[in-house]
Amino acid sequence: MYSIGELANRTGVKIPTIRYYEKIGLIAEPYRSEGNQRRYEKDGLERLLFIKHARQLGLSLEDIYELIQLSSKPEQSCKSAHDIANRHLEMIKQKIANLKLLQKELKRISSLSDKGHVGECKLIEALADHSLCSGEH
Q1: Taking the mean position of all CA atoms in its chain, how far away is CA 46?
Q2: Can you tell me the distance from the alpha carbon of 30 to that of 22, in angstroms, rounded to the nearest whole number?
Q3: Strand 38-39 with 31-32, pairing
Q4: What does each of the 137 residues of the chain score in pLDDT, given as a tens digit?
């Protein structure tokens, strides 16, 4: 069994976050010792590692909750899990496309020539007036 501190050390997840995950039902409430300390089993550690990895991949807590629910029904089709991953992948692709537009525009406005004084800085003017941008971003 693990204390909440040991769980935090083994997973790299902060104690308040572990408590929050308990509160919202992502991890089961642990057994409590006679001193009222949380005591986690191996499955609590594994669930927390699952959550941490899913968060590192950018999945929302809602998606993680849904995946946890799916994993409790091993006979069910894996299609729903793939649907969640594919939906997230499409969001990531859109974010990458948006970031590329931002990169292009920032590169353009940072290369604008000016007289070297903030009062006449083309970059600051472009940031202040969206109409000076080359397109939507």
Answers
A1: 19
A2: 8
A3: antiparallel
A4: 899 999 999 999 999 999 999 999 999 888 888 888 889 999 999 999 999 999 999 999 999 999 999 998 889 899 999 999 999 999 999 999 999 999 999 998 888 877 777 777 888 888 888 887 777 77
In this structure, are residues 126 and 133 in contact, taking their beta carbons and an 8 Å threshold?
Answer: yes
Spatial separation of the C-alpha atoms in residues 11 and 70, rounded to whole Å: 23
User: Cβ distance 110 to 123 under 8 Å?
Assistant: yes
Who contacts 62 (Cβ-Cβ below 8 Å, separation ≥6)? none
Taking the alpha carbons at both ends of the chain, their separation in whole angstroms is 51
Q: What is the pTM of this model?
A: 0.79
Hey, is 38 helix, strand or coil? Answer: strand
Length, in residues, of the chain: 137
